[in-house]
Amino acid sequence: MKVDRNKGFFNVMKTSEKKASIDMYGEIVDEQFDDVETSAVSFKQALKDLGDVEEIDLNINSPGGSVFSGITIYNMIKNHPAKITAHIQGLAASIATCIAMGADKVVMPANAMMMIHNAWTLAMGNSNDLRKQADDLDKINQTVFQSYVDKNPDIDHALLQKMMDEETWLTADECKNLGIIDEIGSSSKVAAKISPEMEAKFKNMPNQFKYYNVEEPEPKEPEPKENTDNDVINDKLDDIFKLLKDVADEVVKDDDKKGDEDDSGNEPPTQSQNKKFNKFLF
C-alpha cells in the first residue's frame, strides 16, 4: 500500500549500529490500520525491532489522539535504556506533548509549537454515568499533568493547570521558560497538517495548523468534452433549420417576383409579412 506522507507516517530505521531514528508524524491511535498513524502496539514492536541501541532520535509532528495509547508510549520511552531525544519537528499537541515528556532530552525548533489542554470525551447515559465520566476525565488530566511535572518538578502547578484549562498553544520560548523542553533548535520546514476531525477538538488553534491552509494542488486544464448523442442530434437539427430557412428565403423571393409580374393588381407580400414567416421558422 502506498503511504500518503502528507497525511502522516510512522517510520523506524537504524542510522548506525547503536543509533536509531523514529518518525512519529500523524495521529496517535488505539488500533493502527495503516502507516500514517502510531499506536502503542506499533511503537512497542518498533523498539523491539531496533534491538540493543544506545541512542534514539524521536521526531514528533503530531496533533495527538488517544490518551491511553499516548500514556503507554510515554511509559515505554521513559523506561527504555537508550538515551532518547525528542525533536518537536512542527507540532506536538495534546497527548503528543506527553509522549515528548518521556524523552531524556526535548529539542524544539524556534518555529514549532506545543499545545496543552484537558482531556475530553464523547459521553452518553444518565446523570450518574456522566458524573462518573467527568470524574474519570479529572483522573486522566491529573496523569497528563504529572508528565509535565516529572519533566520539570519546579513548574508552577497553578499556572500549568490554568494553561491546560484554557487550551494553551506554546512557542518554543514559552516551553523553554516552563521547563518542559531542554533546548531550542534551528527552525524546521516541517508543518503539521491537522485533519478536520482533529481540528474540531481544538478551540484556539493557530491558523498555520488549520486543515484549510494546506496548499491545494494547481487545478488541471479541463479535458476536451466528448460529443454525446444529444450533441449530435442538436447539430443535425441546426443543419435542418438552416436548410429550411434557405428554402423559405427562396420561396419568398419567388413570391416577390411573381407579385411584381402579376397583372391582377394583387400587391406583393410586405417586408413585415416576410419577417413573421422567418420568425416562425426560428
TrEMBL record:
Keyword Protease recorded: yes
Source organism per UniProt: Staphylococcus pseudoxylosus
Keywords, in A-Z order: Cytoplasm, Hydrolase, Protease, Serine protease
SUPFAM superfamilies according to UniProt: ClpP/crotonase
Any matching Pfam family: CLP_protease
A GO term from the CC aspect: endopeptidase Clp complex
Coiled coil: none
Location of the region described as Disordered in the Swiss-Prot/TrEMBL record: 252-282
Any one Gene Ontology BP term: protein quality control for misfolded or incompletely synthesized proteins
CDD domains: S14_ClpP_1 (cd07016)
UniProt key word Cytoplasm: yes
Family: Belongs to the peptidase S14 family.
Single GO MF annotation: ATPase binding
Protein name: ATP-dependent Clp protease proteolytic subunit
Lineage top rank: taxon: Bacteria
